[in-house]
Write a structure and sequence with these properties.
single chain, about 130 residues, OB fold (Dihydrolipoamide Acetyltransferase, E2P), five-stranded mixed beta barrel, 4 helices, 5 strands, about 15% helix, about 35% strand
Amino acid sequence: MVMTESSTGSGSSKRRLRPRIIGIVTGDRVSKTRKVVFEYLSRHSKYNKYVKRQTVLHVHDENNESRVGDHVEVMACRPFSKTKTYRLVRIVTRAAQIDTSILSGEASQMFEKPKADKASEQPSQETAGA
């Protein structure tokens, strides 16, 4: 069977643009998956005031590029899994990354409470019996 241009659909009809959303990454624990929070304002039906709402999107990040706090642009796509139906397009702005190596060093040990020995916690039996 020979396909013509009109039957392939690549003629005059173009693919519609997919919606793109800019949000903030809030979770990066799972490999190749990010949680992105998208905040928006919606009008309350009874009080006619604007209420802040948020939607959590599960986003596919192929190269694990984004980190928590980054502003990212995501686009709707075919489902990667049950909940993951968006993919990462680009990182708009990067968040300031803190150096976590100092948290495990000497500085963090200065603020920890010293652990008491079990022998010193219990009163000796000589003083308890007297």
